[in-house]
Amino acid sequence: MMLIACATDHHYAELAGVMLASLAKNGDSAGSEVVLFGAGLNNRDKKWLRESAGQSIKVTFFDLDGRQLAALRRLRTTRYITAVAYVRMLMPDLLNDRIGRLLYLDCDVVVNHSLAFLREFDLKGLPLAAVRSSIAPDKLAAINAGIGRQADAPYFNSGVLLFDIDEWRRRDLGPRCMDYAANRKGPIHFHDQDVLNHVVGGDWVAIPGTWNRGVKGLSLEECEATAVLHFKGKRKPFHSDFVWPAKQIYDRHRAATPWAARRPISALRRSLRMRWKTLKGRIRGTVSASAGEE
């Protein structure tokens, strides 16, 4: 079975739990292993995450150590995009005893269909496959200009990534991503996503859009027909003011997790949390202004 990875911190643990529940129910992934890279996860978080995955999926925790977290926290973030977002760039190297392919799933996705297509997908000898972003051309031109590329260069979303672990390591892409992220100047649009697109360049294969589709504006029927739904953006489905129909699908899977009885996070609570994160980031000197697609 395929090796799968995700990353989360304590605040987004519920999202990861719902992703695991959807994977167990719909992903045709019995016997698979999910490596969950964590920062600040407590014992209850881990217990609940394992319970969310059920008995058919093995969950292994990779707790980022102080040195690893310190390196990531030196990179630029926002109130909504934390240092943990950059871990995906390093997963093939951190999992140094693994070979073959690795499927990375953002913690804020829900799996609706079998992942068999991705298990068999032809990477064509390239290090990465991903879904091309649907960003408007004018905004894409600005993003590409910021990372030193032609205006219309294809740009992928980093929420679902299929790695060829060996090829990624052979090209030394993890260290190259970290070096670029640590030294880049100027405005940032999508953080780790910008870094990955700059470093990988054109050496990736496009996956059909149904494997990473944002939920904004979709009807319930469109959501249910999508293989992997992505709750990208600032507002998440555990927020009380999240209004898109995809929340119905999220809530179905949430009901199968220990978070089922939790009250949604109010706008006021979210605002206070984000202000606190901003203050901590400014003290470290790493917070920038960005809305974020991720």
TrEMBL record:
Pfam families: Glyco_transf_8. CDD domains: GT8_A4GalT_like. The keyword Iron does not apply. The keyword GTP-binding does not apply. One of its GO terms (molecular function) is glycosyltransferase activity. Gene3D superfamilies: Spore Coat Polysaccharide Biosynthesis Protein SpsA, Chain A (3.90.550.10). Keywords: Glycosyltransferase, Metal-binding, Transferase. It comes from the Bacteria. InterPro entries: Glyco_trans_8, Glycosyltrans_8_dom-fam, Nucleotide-diphossugar_trans. This is Glycosyltransferase family 8 protein. It comes from Mesorhizobium zhangyense. The lineage of its organism: Bacteria, Pseudomonadati, Pseudomonadota, Alphaproteobacteria, Hyphomicrobiales.
